Amino acid sequence: MAWSGRAWTSRPLDQLNILDMKFEPQMSGVNEQSRVDEIRRQRLLDATNIIPWEADAQTWLFTYIGHQVETLLGYPAEQWYEKDFWVSHLHPADRDFAIKFCETSSKTLTDFEFEYRMIAADGRTVWLNDVVNVATENGTPQVLRGFLKDITELKQAEVALQESRALLDSYIATAPVGMAIFDLEFRYINVNETLADINGISIENHIHKRPRDILPGPLGLAVEKRFRGILRTGQPIIHEEITGETLSQPGATRHWLHSFFPILGAKKKPKGIGITVIETTKIKEAEEQLRQSQKMEALGTLSGGIAHDFNNILYPIFIYADLLLEKFDADSQEYTDLKEITSAAQRAKDLVSQVLMFSRRSQGVKHVCDLVPVIKEAMKLMRAALPANITIEEKIPDGIVPVFCDSTQMYQVVVNICTNAGQAILDIGKITITLDSSEVAGIVCFNGTKIHGDYCRLTVTDSGVGMDDETQAKIFDPFFTTREVGQGTGLGLSTVFGIVQDHAGGIKVSSEAEKGSIFEVFLPLAEGPVEKLPESRGDVQDYTGTENILFVDDEKSIRNLGHDCLERFGYIVTTVSDGQQAMEIFAANPDHFNLVVTDQTMPNMTGEKLATALLKLRPDIPIIICTGHSPTITPESSKALRISAFLQKPLAPTQLMRVVREVLDQAKNSL
Fold first, then answer.
1. Does the fold of domain 367-524 match that of domain 175-279?
2. Among 245, 299, 408, 471, which one is most buried in terms of CB atoms within 10 A?
3. Taking Cα atoms as reference points, which of 108, 116, 64 lies closest to residue 87?
């Protein structure tokens, strides 16, 4: 506001000396009372921080300003009568606004009020509230009168409050915890982004709606029930676990920690309801994974403890049933019954193997091998095992597909996936097995990881019943099965997943209910020479011999069958029950024996320690370790100990005889 132009009074009112004034006699009483009133008004103004002022409405030149202005802004009152003083001391950010506002308001001939900032003599910024009265004559503004009030502290408090509110709003908006405020009729009146994301619905679509409108029936009603409870009791509910679904993810079970609390107004009466929501779905999943891991650890411990004894039980069944098969014709009932016995024993052996493998108590021996013959060999088994109503189609290349793997485990991967595919086909159907290789980039596998590079891909496609999304999410979970009780262990695909992960590969699954499934197994292609699979010697007579063999096992039944089996193939067998006795017999005549076959887990002395001691006595003695299970020795570590072969019980007689013959021949050839 630029007060400029002529002065319309000679001196400011506060500079007038009442004693100098002359009054007419007939008016002395009235004037005296006016003088007293004026003094009272002046004293009242002096006692406040309100500063009166007066100016010419035409020239906008100050004609009066209260002396308090000097205390407020630090400028002498006389300076306010100078041209453009007010304008030049307005805050630069408010100058244009204040001038325009005054000009516009004065022309309307109406009183007005506004706020602006001025710069004090010491550089301070002072906020002022200006209340202006416009005095007119014949429709023309003549005099402007007003009061200035210092509102700096109020403005500072407002700014602090705005900053505090902005900070609180920002905290609520960006908090990693879901937050919302409800009115007493349970309608959303404020929601933060985190809660909107949890519910999968925009913030705008929450406002004025109730939980039952946002959350699926049971969950929304459960939340409103909590609201009624805290309004009734006045007590908050802290960290209550609630499980349910959201409209954005129907069918997916999610978990939250909810806190409910009343928002109190005057006299501590409820004005609303506040909630905080922390999603714990991932935490629950992690807890479940931990429990599953602990379960697997317990399973590994249990399986490790019983596997040796269990395989020792199976070993005689395998051996004696296999030996008895030689006594009966293939078309006899006895032969058929014995085949059923060996088949059942094989299933038991496979189950132990899967448990050990999944619990990572059993590690395979990896080498660069051609995957083609492994798959073809597995398909021979599947053609015999699957019912005739299922057609198998192979699309296997003629060339070599080199993969660094355990060929036995790869065989198990193919068999398990194909078995699962066969179980999914309830009527006439088809399974297609395809093997190809190419460079892949960014393929997302089942576990969410991406694979890049040169990979071979084994694809198993079936025309079975397919799977919905919920089933697909669980197929690799241990012990999960859709089959009836007693019809499956739920370890087949779990084992596949563990093997593929151990081979730095990945699995993709595509399926749709009633439209079949596609399993894609990706394995890194390997470089280097391919190790050929051992060839069969053909005739069991090739396994015979006359050498002296020391057979060591603490199980009497194992010793007996080892003795009978080896003798039937012509060998001279000495059996002993523990490592210490074997040491004494061997030390008495080290050159007498051509081979030592020993169990690993025995009292007093393990097979590993026995082998080390025997090799000290005679470094060229061939040694075969044959064990039901041992966590302390593996095929790799046995090679480092110069052990000739490592066998896993139970095994067929022909397998034992083949390895015995190969080890003996290898020892002869090395002489």
1. no
2. 299
3. 116
Provide the token pair at 314.
């199976």
Instruction: Delimit the domains of the chain by residue range.
Output: 13-156, 175-279, 367-524, 540-669
Cα distance between residue 152 and residue 495, in whole Å: 75
pTM > 0.85: no
Looking at CATH, the fold of the domain delimited by 367-524 is given as Heat Shock Protein 90 (3.30.565)
Q: Locate 423 and state its tokens.
A: 């179980």
User: What angle is formed at CA 286 by the lines to CA 283 and CA 291, rounded to 5 degrees?
Assistant: 125
Q: For the segment 308-366, what is each residue's pLDDT rounded down to a tens digit? A: 677 777 777 877 887 788 788 888 888 888 888 887 777 777 667 666 665 554 455 67
Those residues with Cβ within 8 angstroms of residue 230's Cβ, 6 or more apart along the chain or in another chain: 236, 237, 260, 261, 262, 273
Read off the DSSP letter of residue 261.
E
Report which of 365, 358, 362, 631 is spatially closest to residue 498, judged by C-alpha positions. 358
CATH 3.40.50.2300 assigned to 540-669: yes
Centre a 10 Å sphere on the Cβ of residue 374 and count the other Cβ atoms it contains: 22
**CATH number of the domain located at residue range(s) 175-279 in this protein:** 3.30.450.20
CB environment 323-345: b (16+ within 10 A), e (fewer): eebeeeeeeeeeeeebeebbeeb
Q: Which of 71, 12, 11 is nearest to 46 (CA)?
A: 71
Range 13-156: architecture per CATH: 2-Layer Sandwich (3.30)
